[in-house]
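Give me the 3D structure for Sensor-like histidine kinase SenX3.
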Amino acid sequence: MRYWNSIARTGGFALLHLTAVVAGQAQVLQLHDLVIGWAAPGVAAVWFCAQRRAPTRWVDATALFATTVLGAAVIGTRLPAAIALATASAVLAWVFLIMMGRLRPHLWGAGGVERLRTLQDLWGLLGAAIVAAAAGSVSAMAGVWVATGAHHWLLLTVTFTRSVSSIVVVLPLAVCLGHAVTCYRQQRGSLSGWASAIVAALARTPRRRLGEYVIVAVCTTTMYAVVSFPGRTLPLTYLLMAVAVWAGARLSTGYVAFSNLVQATVAMVLTMHGLGPFSTVQTLELRAMVGHGFVLVAAVVGLALALSRDEAAALSRSLRAEQAALAVERDRHARRARLMSAIVDSMADGLLVIDQRDRVLLHNPAARTLMGVQFEREARVDTASWGVADIDGTPITQEEVAHARALAGEQALERDVLVRNATVPEGRVLHVRATALHLNPAEVQAVLLFHDVTAERRQRDELATFAGVVAHDLLNPLTTIEGWSEACQDILAGLPDQPDVTQARSAVARVNNTAQRMRLLIQDLLAYTTARNSEITAEEVDLAALARDVAAARIDTATASNALVPRFDIGDLVPVLADRVLVRQLLDNLVSNAVKYTAPGTTPEVSVRTVREEGTVTVTLTDNGIGIPAGQHLAIFQRFHRAHATAGYSGTGLGLSICSRIVERHGGTIHVEDNPTGGSRFVFTLPATPTETLATPEQSRTPPAARSPNPQT
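Predicted structure for Sensor-like histidine kinase SenX3 (713 residues):
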């Protein structure tokens, strides 16, 4: 079906081209037997553009050559000149097709389906027409030279101007029609009902605009009648240009293209018959050149004005659409801003946003209530007047506040602070979380969230105190229970084996084991209370010596119980500024867990490393144990939480909570990671000493009695 449709279109264009060539007899310019008709080059260009994707383009080329030769023969052109004209027409059509595909591939006939919309489209079409006309003119002149042995420069010039003007006048109208037909077919699926669609489009056109179309047509006809009146002496050609400018500035591009075609046809017919605005030019050749030039200029001016207007209208529509979109976006952002403002104002937690110059950029009512401060616009942070201090009452300097540390690059800082001022004389404990907000590389702000934990902390402290008192008071009766159970074991050990004696021995052993587990629990409760409440005595602690001492104790315990002796790899550790007793308890708890939570039959391996970074020391303790279950890396630091409660490992769930509290009381952080080779990696920070003084070998040497036969220390 596509093949026969292509053949049908070829037949239609062939008939149209033949008509243009024969009709050119009315516009004949005889140079060396070469007839030059005005409309034929434009029809040939449209023909090849319309058949660009046709499967029978060789048929189109053959038909173009044949119709040109036949038409020339009908009007009396000799065969050599007719062949030259046919060759030139084919060259022109092919070159124009190629140039349009390169310059404006989106236009109809050049590979796309669009119509002329911008001045760039017009200049591209004009450029392709000039190149194609030059190629066709050179081919025509070469044909004349081959046929007659002579060349004629006037032939080249006239042929060139005729071809350019013909293409620029005919093709824009064809592009507009082709675009309309293609769009209609894509929307409707066929061309049925196109007449009704045209009538409907005319009905939608305002009457005022239809009236303007009619007035322009009447004025154009009148102007041509005036300039063609025999015997006139006044130069009135500018009136025709004025009508072209009017049409281009006011009417649609399609109407301008149609008007150009009608005016060009009338102008060329009148010119070649000695009438019209250029009838005074005596030489026929020059008259043709001037007529073609006028047609070309009028067409380009009209189309340039129409396309400039269309482009400006498109830009105006695009601008209005963007403005409407911006208005919608502004309204959406305004609603979102009002929502965020309402959320922030309704928060029970306080919110402060502070910039790098210590200015409070944003605060909510809860911040004013909790802090007891009435923040002025862009007020500066003043910890002294706000009454911000550490939990023990020690004032916090500007450099130590949470937002300053967050702006300095520390991550997710959390701490409890005490606020006591004239508005809050009784004092209030606030839990503060500071996070850096990077708006851009040069601008960083700190976001502070804080809520009142006064009641919670009071209740927690009371509970911890109660637990410590109870644990201490339970030690005396527990000691009595352990003493009597041991005495019973000694008595039962001296009795002969009998069923009742065996049963009694088992019962007493269970009592003794339970008493030992209770002692461990009480010791952990006391350790937790100590870690929470004891006063910190900061001093320079030789972390390497302390770690080796803890390692030696674990090696001795394993040796005494015939267990697998753990291996330790303790590097050159950096000294820290901390409480020696609490740091020892911290290391002892972590090492104890590393040794205990090891798979059966696996020798525990523990390594300790440190890195100093400005005012802190980062300690990394790595083991080869069974690791931390997924999702529990944060929960294990909570009180009484046991990650392996059902795996048969003993414990109270307070060890890591004690570690977390010790680190926090020293102003550091602690977290756990998975060891890539298996096990866990605990990382915590402690304050560094003012000067990095490493322990001497004599200070860090492990006593001989504490050494393992093969420890890696």
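DSSP finds 20 helices and 13 strands in the chain. Let me know if you want a second pass.
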